[in-house]
Amino acid sequence: MRIQVVGFGNVGKNLIALIDEKKEFLKSLGASLKVVSVSDSGGTVCKKDGLDLKDVLKRKEDGWKGFKPYSEGYSALSAIKDLAGDVVVELTPSTPSGEPGLSHIKAALEREKNVVTANKGPLVVAFEDLVNLSKRKHVRLLYEATVAAHLPVFCMIESCFAADELVRVEGILNGTTNFIIGEMEKGRDFQSCLDHAVEEGWAETNYSDDVDGIDAARKTVILANSYFKRGATLGDVRIDGIRNVRKTIEKAKSQNKRVKLICNIRWREADVEMSVSPRLIAPDDPFAAVNGGDMALKLFFKTSQQIFVSAQFTGVKQTAYAVLNDIIKMAFPTQACRML
After folding, report:
1. Which residues are catalytic?
2. In the CATH scheme, what is the code of domain 156-312?
3. Domain-by-domain residue ranges, the chain?
């Protein structure tokens, strides 16, 4: 299976390293992955017979100096249109407009290439269009890594609850805010906790999307559109971030409770209500045990009742793993959540 990787930041580099690390095991499963192109913001490196992945990682660190397979200025969009590939992996940064990832995904689907993405932006602004395009072209669009990294958010529903009816979803879906709130519960002020989160790598220098609840709201929109087929947008979500969470934390402490930024989706009268806000959590609630940058999800079904799943999050390698798992599902379309 020929893979084209678009976006060579931390997730992209970890994905390339994982594919190389697991290549023999993947072959033993019958999945022979061949990365034929990797595009970053400056150009594309490509080789139709497959790239030497260790060499690509090294050359990237060296700024591609003297590396003949790297074509400076050869864009990801051109590589998608020009080169032969079976799966395009779109890993560029998420943006409010969805671009450039949206154009990359559309171009791949139009050319009947399967797509795997960890990029939230395109799915927030054009979920229905992209899903419908993939169906028309008879290819697959998988996006497990867009919500809560390696937590089995979408494949679990598909493989385990296909005959049940989902009525509500609650989640801790932003590790940065969970880390900051946890530190504030120890008595520290918001700014010092935020600075600590940046130092520890939990928050980016540009942290507003996290602390203002926007990142969590984007994930909420993707969940609502995937689970409930509603065509929801970011504007449909009531959003309250954590900049002014101190009073809520003090109230929770007086009641022996904890505070979590909760994403909520509720099916109500043929429509969905969506919100993101800090909420008081009782000590016996499973959310109370989700600490640091970890994430979790509660799913409420008519028959199965409440299902709770959580995952420890330590870094982008786990996001890259979720991307790799989606790639494997392309190779084995009848098997979901395959363990590597």
Report:
1. 219
2. 3.30.360.10
3. 2-150+317-331, 156-312
